[in-house]
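Annotated sample (chain length 207).
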Amino acid sequence: MRLIIFGSTGSIGRQLVKQALEQGHTVTAFARDPVRVDIKHANLQVIQGDVLDPTSVEKAVRGHDAVLCSLGAGRKGMVRSEGTRNIIRAMEKAGVRRFICQSTLGVGESRGNLNFVWKHLMFGLLLRPAYADHVSQENHVKRSHLDWTIVRPGAFTDGERTGQYRHGFPGTDKTTKLKISRADVADFMLKQLMDNTYLHQSPGLSY
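Output written by the structure step:
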């Protein structure tokens, strides 16, 4: 497939680019700073642009089969939600349907999966703007007319890609480890391109 990846220089985005190329896809990495895309490959094109600039997003999205979004902004807010809204508008205008968007475990019904620390200290205090940004981001996706899947991973680790993880568990499940490797997040997101099991759904993802 011809894929475009937003957030391509982030920790998940790098894994998406790497694994997508390994799987034989043609990849466009959308980056504010192209120098940070440190992968060289015949099937990789790097486009400079700002996800908060609707015009550059619109130009970049055209001609692709699917879009993967792993936008990050640390503890800050706005970039994920506003950037995702620009991506959605560009996709709807270009007629690109399939959208895989990375959010976080704890949004919506998955809040019930969290323990006290994540629910009240991390998302309640330290990461409150980032959490609110993800909530807004998901609302934009769910209101769209796209063929979307929102992926809600637990806390990121630097482990290897195992392909062995839990997904789609109910919001009442308290048995997950609330963590998953960045490589496995990318693995699951790319698998959604060929699988409509979670079409218009928001599966949790964790060990």
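Annotation: The longest strand covers residues 147-153.
Annotation: The two ends are 28 Å apart (CA to CA).
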